[in-house]
Amino acid sequence: MYFVLLIVVVxxxxxxxxxxxxxxxxxxxxxxxxQKGEAYECGIPTRGKSWMQFKVGYYLxxxxxxxxxxxxxxxxPWAVVVQELGIMGLVNVLFFLFVxxxxxxxxxxxxxLEWK
Length: 116
Description:
Number of helices: 3
Structural class: mainly alpha
Shape: flat
Number of strands: 0
Strand content: under 5%
Mean pLDDT: 84
């Protein structure tokens, strides 16, 4: 029973997405302007190549930020129901924090938090 319902939902989703893409392609304007393909940076024309490599440190810093941002997202619901969870809830969140602190210590040791 549930399998049939799942198939109906998936087929409906695929049909609706295909219909929306087809209608958009049929009614969209077909003009092309080469200026639309250029990089736009605050109204100033770019000089040189607009594609360049960034230091990997920026990505590492962003990943660390996301890691601790997700930590906050997970800790807030826990703080709301902390009394209902009891001691096991406390042990689980302490383990979660321990793993995150280990990740921070590893990143700190590798120098991911330093701007060079």
